[in-house]
C-alpha cells in the first residue's frame, strides 16, 4: 500500500472511531480499494491438501497487502458498530456495480404486483438444511407467487442451489427468464452466483475453508445482501428477508429507505432456546420479526412456535446429519409423508408468505392452508411444475418421488 492510500485510510478509520458518518463516495472508494485487493486471493492453494492448513492459508493470501487484512474488518465492523447510514449503504452498493456485479440485471422490468421476493442471509448457527426453497414451492402450491434468489451452500449444511440441483431444476441466471418460468409455476429460483464474476466466487470458496470464515464473510458481504434485496428489477411489493443478525430494525429501516416500492415486508430472525440463530421462522425458539408497510417500519414483534400452530421442538428435531438422506427427507416432508420437527419447519416458513401477501390474517391460518395444500396433493403437483418451468430434468424429480412410499 503506497503512502497516499495509507494516509487516506488513516483519516477514514479515525473518523469511524470517532463515530463520524462517511459520505457515499468515501465508502464507495474504500470498498472499491478492498475489492481490488481481495480479488488477489489465490484460491488454488486452498485445494493443495498435501500442504499444512496454515501454509495453505498463507500462500493463498501471499499476493494481498498485509495491511489490507487488518483494514477490511476494521472498516466494516466500525461502520456497522456506529450504525450504518443509507448514504454509506449506497456507497457499498455502488462499489459492487463498479466491480461488475449484476451486469445485465439493471434494465430488467419490474415483475407482477402480486409477487413476493425472498432472500435469506444464510450461514445460520444451527446449520439447518435449506428450508426456504422447499418452502417457496409449498407456498406456491397454496396460491402465492414467490421468487427467491440464492446460491449453493458455502457454510451451511445445504444451500438453495444444492436442493434445486438435486431435483433437476435448471436454475435461472437472467432476470428475463423469471417471467417465463412463472407462467408455469408460481415459484421461481434465480441463482445469485451468476451475478458475480469468477474471481469473486473464488473468494467465497476460499473463505469457506478459513476458520471463522462464515463470520468474516457475513461482514464482508453484508452490503451485497442488501443490494440483492433492493435490486431495482425486483420491484416486488411483498418482500421477506431471513437475516442471521439480531438488528432487524436496522435492516427494516434500510429496506424502507432503499426499496421505495415495498408495500409490505418482513425481516425475520429465528433463534433456539440458547439464542443460536437461524435465518428462518423458528419452531425451536423465538422469532423476531420486523414488519414493513408502505415503505415504513411498522412494528417489531416476537413469535413462538405455538403462534404458528406447531409444537415447540428441540434443535435435534430440525437438523439432519451428513449420513441422512437429506433430499429424501425434504421431499417426504413436502408431500406429507413425515410429521416431525423438520417438516413443521418447512410448513411454517411457507406459511409466512401467505401472511405476507394478505392471503391469511394470522400465522396459524397460513400454517393450516399449507397443510391443506400438502394433503390434497397440490405441493407434489407444484414441485413438478417448478422443475418443468425451466425445462429442467423432470426425470430426476420423478425418480426421487417414486422412491417415497
TrEMBL record:
Domain Glycosyl transferase family, first and last residues per copy: 115-182, 242-378
One protein family per Pfam: Glycos_transf_3
Gene Ontology CC terms, in alphabetical order: cytosol
GO terms assigned for molecular function: anthranilate phosphoribosyltransferase activity
GO terms of biological process kind: L-tryptophan biosynthetic process
UniProt keyword Glycosyltransferase present: yes
Name of this protein: Glycosyl transferase family 3 domain-containing protein
Lineage of origin: Bacteria, Bacillati, Bacillota, Clostridia, Eubacteriales
Amino acid at each position: 500500500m503506497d503512502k497516499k492510500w495509507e494516509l487516506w485510510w488513516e483519516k477514514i478509520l479515525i473518523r469511524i472511531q470517532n463515530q463520524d458518518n462517511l459520505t457515499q463516495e468515501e465508502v464507495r472508494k474504500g470498498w472499491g480499494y478492498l475489492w481490488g485487493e481481495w480479488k488477489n486471493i489465490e484460491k488454488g492453494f486452498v485445494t493443495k491438501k498435501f500442504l499444512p492448513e496454515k501454509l495453505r492459508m498463507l500462500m493463498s493470501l501471499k499476493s494481498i497487502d498485509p495491511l489490507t487484512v487488518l483494514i477490511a474488518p476494521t472498516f466494516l465492523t466500525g461502520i456497522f458498530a456506529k450504525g450504518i447510514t443509507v448514504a454509506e449503504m449506497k456507497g457499498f452498493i455502488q462499489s459492487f456495480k463498479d466491480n461488475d456485479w449484476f451486469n445485465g440485471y439493471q434494465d430488467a422490468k419490474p415483475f407482477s404486483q402480486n409477487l413476493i421476493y425472498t432472500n435469506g442471509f444464510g450461514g445460520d448457527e444451527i446449520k439447518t438444511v435449506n428450508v426456504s426453497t422447499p418452502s417457496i414451492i409449498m407456498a406456491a402450491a397454496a396460491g402465492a407467487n414467490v421468487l427467491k434468489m440464492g446460491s449453493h451452500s458455502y457454510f451451511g449444511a445445504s444451500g438453495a442451489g444444492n436442493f434445486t440441483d438435486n431435483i433437476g431444476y435448471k436454475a435461472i441466471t437472467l432476470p428475463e427468464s423469471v417471467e417465463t418460468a412463472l407462467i408455469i409455476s408460481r415459484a421461481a429460483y434465480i441463482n445469485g452466483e451468476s451475478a458475480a464474476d469468477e474471481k469473486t466466487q473464488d473468494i467465497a470458496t476460499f473463505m469457506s475453508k478459513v476458520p471463522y470464515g462464515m463470520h468474516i464473510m457475513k461482514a464482508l458481504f453484508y452490503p451485497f445482501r442488501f443490494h440483492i434485496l433492493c435490486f431495482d428489477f425486483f420491484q416486488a411489493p411483498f418482500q421477506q428477508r431471513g437475516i442471521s443478525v439480531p438488528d432487524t430494525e436496522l435492516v427494516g429501516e434500510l429496506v424502507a429507505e432503499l426499496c421505495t416500492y415495498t408495500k409490505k415486508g418482513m425481516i425475520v430472525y429465528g433463534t433456539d432456546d440458547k439464542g443460536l440463530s437461524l435465518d428462518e421462522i423458528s419452531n425451536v425458539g423465538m422469532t423476531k420479526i420486523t414488519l414493513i408497510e408502505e415503505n415504513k417500519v411498522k412494528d417489531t414483534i416476537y413469535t413462538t412456535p405455538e403462534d404458528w400452530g406447531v409444537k415447540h421442538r428441540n434443535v435435534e428435531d430440525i437438523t439432519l446429519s451428513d449420513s441422512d438422506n437429506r433430499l429424501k427427507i425434504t421431499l417426504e416432508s413436502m408431500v406429507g409423508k413425515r410429521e416431525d420437527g423438520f417438516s413443521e419447519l418447512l410448513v411454517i416458513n411457507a406459511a409466512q408468505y401467505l401472511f405476507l401477501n394478505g392471503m391469511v390474517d394470522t400465522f396459524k391460518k397460513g400454517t393450516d392452508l399449507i397443510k391443506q395444500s400438502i394433503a390434497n396433493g397440490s405441493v407434489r403437483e407444484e414441485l413438478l411444475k417448478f422443475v418443468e418451468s425451466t425445462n429442467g430434468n423432470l426425470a430426476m424429480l420423478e425418480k426421487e418421488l417414486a422412491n417415497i412410499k
